[in-house]
Amino acid sequence: MKNFIMCTTLIAGASMAQARTIDYPDARRVDTVDTYFGTEVPDPYRWLEDDNSEETAQWVKQQNKISHDYLSHLPGRADVKKRITELANYEKMGTPFKVKGKYYFFKNNGLQNQSVLYVKDTMDGEPRVVLDPNTLSEDGTVALQQTNFSDDGRYMAYVITRNGSDWNEIYVIDLTTGTLLDDHIVWAKFTDAQWLGDGFFYSCYDAPENAKSQKNEFHKVCYHKLGTPQEQDYVEYRNMTEPLLFYQAAVIDERFVCILETGGEGNGLLVKDLKDVNPHYVRLAATDGLYNEPIGVDHGKLYVKSNAGAPCWKVVSYDIDNLRPESRKDFIAEREWVLADAQLAGGKFIVTYDRDASSHPYVVDAQGKIEKELPLPTFGSVGISCKKKDSEVFYSFTSFVYPTAVYRYDLATGESSNVFSPAVPIKRDDYVTEQVFFASKDGTQVPMFLIYKKGLKRDGKRPTLVYGYGGFNASMNPAYSYTRTPFAMLDAGGVYAYTNLRGGGEYGEKWHEAGTKMQKQNVFDDFIAAAEWLIKENFTCKGKIAINGASNGGLLVGAVVNQRPDLYGAAVPQVGVMDMLRYHGFTIGWNWAHDYGRSDDSKEMFEYLKAYSPLHTIKNDGTKYPPILVTSGDHDDRVVPAHSFKYTAQLQASNTGDAVKIIRVDTNAGHGHGKPMSKVIEEYTDIQTFIMHNLGVKYKYKK
What we know:
Layout: H1 2-19, E1 33-36, E2 39-42, H2 54-72, H3 77-88, E3 92-93, E4 97-99, E5 102-108, E6 116-120, E7 128-131, E8 142-149, E9 155-162, E10 167-174, E11 179-189, E12 194-196, E13 199-204, E14 220-225, E15 234-238, E16 246-252, E17 256-262, E18 267-273, E19 281-285, E20 292-298, E21 301-306, E22 314-319, E23 329-332, E24 338-345, E25 348-354, E26 359-364, E27 370-373, E28 381-386, E29 392-399, E30 402-410, E31 415-420, E32 431-439, E33 445-453, E34 464-467, H4 487-491, E35 495-499, H5 509-513, H6 521-536, E36 545-550, H7 552-563, E37 570-574, H8 593-596, H9 603-612, E38 628-633, H10 642-653, E39 661-666, H11 677-694
């Protein structure tokens, strides 16, 4: 008990001393009230939803001045920045991929904002630059999203985003001359470029009046022929009776055009055989909450990865000469572990299973039987790159203290060889990585990875960062991250806990569903239980725990702070979904309803959402909250910044104790993707320093 009192008193004193010097700007309150099933809900900061207004801009400017003044003067910030920069500054290589016998790969010399695309004629040959996305803008705010090659290897379409927006533009390069063509596609979204003949399919919306916040409806697939203006592109597929569906094209062997029809959860699959006398789309799977992802065509079969009747996924096949739902057969049956990926390679398959949130890749023969497992150093994540007719398989591997390395596997010899291993300033033998399981509130066993320095003393006072997401069927597998993993804090004797909460995809669809809609509280219970387990196991104590999560993870952090403010010493919700009653009215927010439910679904759903919505459950009775740093981007058109703006205004106006509550709004930045390296380093320097300061961690950089 003595240790517990000492650690909480120390942290509270430090954060309160800082907070008393902050004079938050007054945020105007309005009388806006919404009525849900007879219940009135005030929304006093509704005006902050208008991110184009001068009043909102001034509020953001004042808030940024406060957060900058606070964060820039934190002790140890310069040392933390040096460590993050050091950890980021290493040569990085992406998994190679082959196009018409040439080897393409991305590489970064260390601190480049974006990796550069190179090509080699042979793996031992000299690399040549194909595209350097760092030249696309002076400030690094134009980011490369996708590259797609024509079937003959002559053209490459590349997809970009500006200022972190979800809106895309597409350009085309003639690889024989290196010339940028005049072709330019705008208002594309959630797309790549799927080549067919002398053009490509892409997904888009009609041009919006307000690109940052207007609700997006009636997604469509268009076809662009090279050398023609976009106005002449024809609509390949669109459903004018279903405004809230997404459509994406996939071309297989220049013969089959697949349309993936996504309705929030799951996707329908339509396929057109261009060799038919009368080519038309045949619906092989309905949009009914189940996933159907085409893998490719071989052995006279169309192979599809599906979770229909298989919560942990399986591979099914369709007869290409009889493309009908009735020709469907199981090819690789569902197994105990989650089938995460399947690709064709040299007449076989490379299949990756997730076991307890860790990747296990296998070679599978043409009959669907496992031949062997590809070797990996430890638990982690893999990425596979292969071609249907090629015996070469490239795969990447990463884990918490293993930056991404690249390997080549020869299907003919069964041998693996290392292609690239990065050199980083980490002595991985200095760290311990272990996987533990803890019981949630209802007894469910939940996995969690722990990373800390060898010889760590379990004295119940270790500063600890717990990271979580828990949603949208996303599996949080181990990966090296110089931003998320707080190495400076680990070096100072801290612990990093990386949770695999319900709502994710770590154990298939049942695990996902257990954290959705009326079961969303399970996710919060899991996250709270992780902190309680760390206390019980004498790693740390109340007040010495920081929590962090982004997007749906930002919602997680906001919700659990309101539910258990006594547990935490600091909280950082990044680009979070904070208004659970109105989220579905902005941009693509409606697409999250399959996980969350909507406030207009039913009285019961409204009451459930309101009961955990971070914005609506902030206490105002003197309950002491931990220091909170909110982050957002002014160009975030996925989780619009209004979520974070309104949440911060309500926090600052509520009686939650003296600990600091500030917001850091990144300019010319979106939901997180596409940020230049300099912005990433600055953001995570602020986040990690904020956490360490408020947990009482002192850190000195050592070369």
